[in-house]
Design brief:
The complex is a heterodimer of chains A (423) and B (92). Chain A is an alpha/beta fold. In chain A, a hairpin with a 5-residue loop joins β23 and β24. By secondary structure, chain B is mostly helical. Chain B has a single domain, classed as Cytochrome c-like domain (Cytochrome Bc1 Complex, Chain D, domain 2), CATH 1.10.760.10. Helix content of chain B is 51%, strand content 0%. The chains are: A alpha/beta (423), B mainly alpha (92).
Amino acid sequence: MKISRRRFLGLGLAASGALVPLPAFAQGAGPRVVVVGGGFAGASCARALRQADPRIAVTLVEPSPTFTACPFSNAVIAGLRELSAQQFTYDRVAAGGIARARTSATAVDAQARSVTLADGAHLSYDRLVLAPGIDIRWGALPGYDEPASAQMPHAWRAGEQTLLLRRQLEAMDDGGLVVISAPANPFRCPPGPYERASLIAHYLKTKKPKSKLIVLDAKDTFSKQRLFQSAWAELYPGLLEWVPLSKGGAVTSVEAATRTLVTDFGRHAAHVANVIPPQKAGRIADAAGVADRTGWCPIDPVTFESKLQPRIHVIGDAAIAGAMPKSAFAANAQAKTCAAAVATLLAGGTPSAPKLINTCYSLVAPDYGISVAGVYQPSPSGQLADVPGAGGVSPAEAPRATRAAEAVLAEAWFRTITGEVFG
Amino acid sequence: MAAAIGLASIAAAAAASAQPPAGAASCSGCHPASTRVTSPVPRLAGLDRAAIVTAMQDFRSGKRAGTVMDRIAKGFTDDEIQAIAAWYAAQK
């Protein structure tokens, strides 16, 4: 057996006594890992932990009986897909020997290594993984509170909000005005607002061609921008207008009763208004003390352990993952990397530096797909950084057959990743 | 203490040997791990080691056209490609 210098040093530290606690395995029963959140990150991590080492007792804390996936939910909004195609149960996750706590986590005691559940129960852990996704920063955009989202849906967590936005579009008369408000960085799914604009434009073009769509943006640049804008000019000329920050695109307040979006340059009274609001890590991150002033969670790029609390790992959209975007693919890749690191740590080893991949597809039309990919590794400054020379977006000039092929690959990706996480 | 250290080193080695090399865990985001999933993207488990190496090197050099693999392969060294290929070839 080859023992790396790093692992040898790790054992040396353990042998020296109190610096490093004995591996959990040496203490009797298998170590306990609690995973909070059953999305792409949390469910992936729970399963990967059991695969990495079946001796680990894993409990998944998730109140919802089903998961509703965000990727492809823009196609539901545009009437191209049913919400049921986005929904998955935890039956197979549970069948893999993962205990389920069907409630939410309300507090974490990092010193006592205990999670408090909404029903008052406590779960002790050797390592905790938080995968809480996002929460909306209600009120950060003046006028946009929770009641306002019933008039101006965000549809940024898939489910009832997705269906509400779809129903509003279906009820709108031909010739109506649809307005999307896109937030400043960082937020879940960087290309998401622009895929949504594309597919809503497709719906309007085919069903209500006298209508108009305006995207009011708090940014001057966005993910896959040249590809989106080139496709918009080709597919939706005169129908879809993007207003960047520098042209007055930033929405400064909203008035829900009249579906009005206010900018420094004017007021837009919309028939359908989709407000994609400012976001932060899911609320258990704040309760556990792993979120910083930004509302997101700084992590070690090798282990995904919080930089603020020991033995708590944060993965997925809630984490500050450097160059990695907040995507389902990234959440799943981080989950598997984190699970391997946690298993190694619990066994008394030292995790080696990982490499991670992200691939995100967007649909500009049902048969027109584009993608962005990246490869990431820990940088000397302790962030996940792009591997130089790798990654990038689909070619700027490509035949429609290439775009059609990427649309097919996008759907294949969704089947594959949901199969791995929930199937 | 010595017994505990021995146990720790065995456990660490067992955990380490079961785990994929750097980069390999991400592949199953697109390459199905399960035989139940239908996809135009090939399963990697059990593929010939040399075939995986050749494919990655050809994507990286541009000899083989890809939709995303040309962009992803450029992020991996020869040693990393060898380790990933060996690991997937050994899977079922």
